[in-house]
Design goal:
The complex is a heterodimer of chains A (about 450) and B (about 600). Chain A has about 450 residues and is an all-alpha fold. Chain A has helices spanning about 30-40, 50-65, 70-80, 90-110, 115-130, 135-145, 150-160, 170-200, 210-230, 235-250, 255-265, 275-285, 290-305, 310-320, 325-335, 345-360, 365-375, 380-385, 385-395, 395-410, 415-425, 430-445. Chain B is mostly helical and about 600 residues long. Chain B contains 19 helices and six strands. The chains are: A mainly alpha (about 450), B mainly alpha (about 600).
């Protein structure tokens, strides 16, 4: 492997001619001032046209990429390669990464490009700036994965893993971990394929043992590859998921739980809803006690109040004996329906309608009012407008009924949504609507029966 | 034995003190009186500028050919000489007469070497210790007096001869005693023998040669020959790669190695700047102590009347405007020979920016005709449009609005293309410049990488996109092509903007605004300020258009416009009135 040892040596002082500003004399002269300002920014030297060319070229490339003009981008790229020879050592060292990013984009989309040219480009770029070797290797592997070249990707990762050059820095260590983890992920993929194969085989099949052995071997290698990475703070969802799956498969529940708990609760890790979801699903599979499940979902509720697990959370809370849990159950439902994406969620409305009635029957009017106070200004327009009544009825009568019930309870029987649904003559729902009317009369918070 | 050929060798013989030399078969000089053979070889400097032979001669003389890795021993000035040679060749290919290269540029260069004490003098600058004292007399003013022999090769000693031996030389002429030894001592090095010393040399009163300076030499020679190339043309040809400038060193002979300090001397990373080269031209002209240049008369290309015609055609303005520009030129005295001719030995050496000035005259005429206040020109356009609609058979009136629309489109396209070409420009030479031998493999490797990457990406580019460079032309726009839908305004009449009054014609426009009201009283070079937003949009457009054509800053053109106005309205300036009355214009 060849590379440039340049980056590893001290910067070479460039012998550059000093160009001085041409104009002299007193007085304001704006164009001159402009160049003067530019001069200040780069420390006393007039900007060279070479630098102008490359920066103009860069913006042309970016523009072309933005407009998906791969052809033009490639044309400018042809010229942009000269930044690798920039006499400004700072720019020269930054060049390989920029070139890699732009060039790989172009090669990825350009109609005339192919796998081979991408591979050649990646291999070249890896060896131009040693600092980027690992990063490029990883991205190269991802490209290969994208094209379904699993074997090549794996080989690439293995090569990168064993690559050593110069000192080991901490940033490089993370990259190595990442590379290993991706390798682990690929191994997981093979493992999971083997597992599928195994599940199809009969236990008495002569091949069963061989495959089972294979499955075991893979898992051992993979866990070693992944476990290092997921200890470092970060978002490692796919890695964690596959790692846990393997641990579970081999019965190491404690290990799996530890990994998941750590992933969800370690404060050094960035806040990540998926971490809590994984943990919740795991605990659910393990049939953990309700309180434990509630405590996990409570955190998820704080991060993503609109998550679909919230309905599950609500059912858990509803069943709970604790009063504060039941109050929270109401809060959760209102929270879900605050989001535009959930407005047509019939389950949520059904839950809310039912729960509201229950709560009002249970004389917890204060709970409802507490939730309603902050929403009474905007929910009527957001959920219960005449327009919605019409369109909901047209699309989904069941949803319209549930909503109408909620509207009646919250806004009273005079509310337009409620009245509109009431007016609709529907044979099957007739009874239900009548019942609804009665309940509204009885429990609506607008005219408390005092 | 050819006696004629030995004439330029004017040394006295060391044996008999006679000056009568012949040439041996090997090309060495021998004394025809006492048959004493010198170690000197004949040189060919007087016939043509052929660096190659000179370099070979030098190399032979020093007899210090190092290993092939290090290449020949050569001097920085030889590098410049080589660049000048290539530039002269390129100019010849552009159609400039061969005299430019053989006589004018060659002699300017020799004179430069002498004035800067690098050759043709008693104590070349390279002699250590003493400062050079007097120059030999043979190139003093008297020789420049009559034009035909003006730049003929006077008896100057052959340039770059073998200076290693001195047995025959009473002057102890050792032109370049800088030896390789000094180079090995220092860590900073260069491929040329004197690169390190050259980059440190700072001597008062001596114009040091740089790559931009080579263009000053070219322009001086063009000016001397009164060739039909303006400075802006020259620089545009450089930009379009018709004249070697950027990476000119890459065509040096294989054995002339460049590295280290040579990088700073010969490596160029910027396009030449008009003002910079203009200044350098005057500097070099003064330094060379050149006599007054040949007169710029009415039939010269550089005369404003001819240049104005050229630029009127270039920007698609009616031919009839030419009589107006001539009038302005006459009134301002800018067509006078004394005003136009470059005289470096005059008290205040200055030359005229012929191209900028001609363009400024056109701008002034446009202002006289159309006022360019973002309103009057449009109302005139309305009149012209109506008239043209009614009289379709007559010669159409010039419609400023239509002209603007067509020019704006053409200009924007041109400028866009130019910007794209600039962004695509390849600066780096095939021969990478490296700092030291340690860097050499790195530099070459990097070059190889770039070439490989470029090769790879060139397959992604359609072949039409990489078509060869366009052929050089002094025109950037072409309006006479039949097939285009772009109107050609050359034949349009100015009737709409002029009115008859007896025998003379007056401009309909009776107002004028001055580009600047005050001129700096101090002696600084700048005249006025140009802040775009203070001026009308049409004026801005016209300045942008012209300054793009000349590749100069708009402020420079604005300055020139102000100078023309200053000459034209001299009285108004002394009274300091803002608006001037209408100006009578006689139609020719």
């Amino acid at each position: 492997m060849s590379d440039f040892s340049e980056e590893l040596k001290g910067p070479v002082t460039d012998d550059e001619e000093v160009e001085t500003s041409v104009l002299s004399g007193a007085g304001m002269h704006f164009p001159w001032l402009q160049t003067y300002v530019e001069t200040v920014a780069i420390g006393g030297k007039r900007r060279k046209d070479f630098a102008q060319t490359t920066s103009a070229c860069l913006s042309f490339i970016q523009e072309a990429l933005l407009k998906h003009q791969w052809q033009q981008a490639a044309e400018y790229m042809y010229s942009y390669f000269q930044t690798l020879e920039d006499s400004d050592s700072y720019k020269r060292q930054a060049a390989p990464e920029i070139i890699w990013k732009l060039g790989s984009q172009i090669l990825f989309y350009h109609p005339k490009s192919n796998m081979e040219s991408f591979n050649t480009f990646a291999d070249r770029m890896k060896n131009i700036g040693v600092m980027n070797y690992l990063k490029i290797s990883l991205q190269h592997a991802l490209y290969l994965l994208h094209h379904g070249m699993l074997k090549d990707a794996k080989r690439n990762l293995s090569e990168a893993e064993t690559w050593r050059h110069g000192e080991n820095t901490s940033s490089r260590e993370i990259l190595i971990n990442l590379i290993q983890a991706y390798k682990g992920l690929l191994q997981y993929y093979t493992w999971s394929e083997k597992k599928m194969e195994l599940s199809k085989l009969d236990k008495d099949d002569y091949a069963y043992n061989a495959v089972a052995q294979d499955v075991f071997n893979h898992s051992w290698k993979t866990s070693a590859n992944i476990s290092a990475l997921i200890k470092i703070p970060g978002v490692w969802d796919p890695f964690v998921k596959s790692y846990v799956e393997m641990l579970e498969f081999y019965g190491d529940r404690d290990g799996a739980q530890e990994v998941l708990t750590n992933y969800a609760y370690d404060e050094k890790f960035p806040s990540n809803p998926n971490a809590h979801i994984y943990l919740y699903n795991f605990l659910k599979r393990q049939k953990a006690p309700r309180s434990k499940l509630i405590s996990v979902l409570k955190i998820l509720y704080q991060i993503v109040p609109s998550h679909k697990l919230m309905l599950e959370f609500h059912t858990l809370l509803r069943k709970s004996e604790k009063e504060e849990h039941r109050k929270l159950g109401l809060e959760v439902l209102f929270g879900v329906l605050d989001f535009a994406g959930c407005t047509k969620n019939i389950t949520a409305w059904k839950y809310l309608a039912k729960y509201l009635k229950n709560i009002l029957m249970g004389n917890h009017l204060a709970w409802v009012q507490e939730e309603w106070n902050s929403r009474k200004n905007w929910w009527p327009g957001f959920h219960f407008s005449y327009f919605w009544a019409k369109s909901d009825w047209k699309e989904d009568t069941a949803l319209a009924c549930e909503k109408a019930f909620v509207a009646g309870l919250l806004l009273g029987k005079g509310c337009r949504y409620f009245r509109y649904i009431l007016k609709q003559d529907h044979q099957i729902l007739g009874k239900k609507i009548k019942r609804m009317k009665r309940s509204v009369k009885k429990y609506s918070i607008v005219n408390p029966r005092l | 034995m050819d006696l004629e050929e030995a004439e330029e060798f004017k040394e006295r013989c060391t044996q008999c003190a006679a000056v009568s030399w012949g040439l041996t078969d090997e090309g060495k000089y021998y004394c025809t009186f006492c048959h004493n053979v010198t170690e000197r070889y004949q040189e060919v400097t007087n016939t043509d500028l052929i660096p190659n032979t000179q370099i070979k001669a030098l190399n032979r003389g020093l007899k210090k050919k190092n290993n092939t890795e290090k290449g020949w021993d050569w001097y920085v000035c030889e590098g410049f000489q080589y660049i000048l040679y290539q530039q002269a060749e390129a100019l010849k290919n552009l159609g400039v007469g061969p005299e430019l290269k053989n006589d004018v540029l060659h002699n300017f260069w020799k004179r430069y070497l002498q004035k800067s004490k690098q050759a043709y003098c008693k104590n070349p600058v390279y002699t250590t210790g003493r400062k050079p004292t007097v120059l030999e007399d043979n190139l003093s003013h008297s020789d420049w007096a009559s034009e035909p022999e003006l730049l003929s090769d006077v008896s100057c000693p052959p340039f770059l001869e073998s200076g290693a031996e001195s047995q025959s030389d009473i002057h102890t002429r050792k032109p370049f005693p800088v030896s390789k030894a000094s180079q090995s001592e220092t860590s900073v090095c260069s491929g040329s023998l004197d690169g390190v010393e050259y980059s440190q040399r700072k001597e008062k009163g001596i114009v040091k040669m740089t790559v931009p300076q080579t263009l000053a030499f070219c322009y001086l020679s063009l000016l001397w020959q009164r060739e039909a190339i303006t400075l802006s043309d020259l620089l545009r040809f450089v930009e379009e790669d018709h004249i070697p400038y950027i990476n000119a060193f890459q065509h040096f002979p294989e054995q002339m190695k460049l590295y280290g300090r040579d990088r700073g001397i010969f490596g160029i990373e910027s396009w030449p700047d008009y003002e910079d080269i203009y200044k350098k031209t005057i500097e070099v002209g003064t330094f060379l102590d050149l006599p007054r240049f040949p007169d710029i008369t009415k039939d010269c290309y550089l005369h404003p009347n001819i240049l104005c015609m050229k630029y009127l055609m270039e920007v698609n303005l009616p031919d009839e405007m030419h009589s107006l520009t001539c009038h302005v030129v006459k009134m301002t005295g800018m067509g006078e020979v004394d005003f136009l001719t470059f005289d470096p030995i005059a008290k205040m050496a200055k030359t005229v920016k012929y191209d900028v000035q001609a363009v400024a005259v056109i701008v002034v005429v446009l202002k006289l005709l159309f006022l360019l206040d973002d309103s009057f020109e449009w109302s005139l356009s309305n009149l012209a449009e109506k008239h043209n609609e009614k009289n379709k058979k007559d010669k159409p009136w010039f419609d400023f609005r239509k002209w603007y629309q067509i020019m704006k489109k053409a200009f924007d396209e041109k400028k866009q293309k130019w910007e794209e070409a600039r962004a695509k420009y390849l600066w780096k030479s095939e021969k990478p410049l490296y700092y030291s031998f340690v860097d050499k493999p790195v530099a070459y490797k990097k070059r190889e990488m770039v070439v490989n990457l470029q090769k790879q990406f060139s397959t992604l580019v359609e072949s039409t996109a990489t078509a060869g460079k366009k052929s050089p032309s002094s025109f950037q726009f072409n309006w006479t092509e039949e097939d285009t839908d772009r109107t050609c305004f050359h034949g349009h009449s100015l009737q709409g903007v002029l009115k008859e009054k007896g025998q003379s014609l007056l401009t309909k426009n009776s107002l004028y605004w001055l580009s600047t009201q005050k001129f700096c009283r101090c002696y600084c070079t700048h005249v006025t300020t140009y802040e775009e937003s203070n001026y009308s949009l049409s004026y801005q457009f016209i300045l942008n258009l012209f300054s793009f054509l000349l590749r100069i800053k708009t402020s420079l053109l604005h300055e020139e416009v102000s100078l023309v106005e200053k000459k034209l309205f001299e009285k108004k300036y002394s009274v300091k009135r803002k608006k001037s009355r209408s100006k009578k214009v006689r139609r020719h």
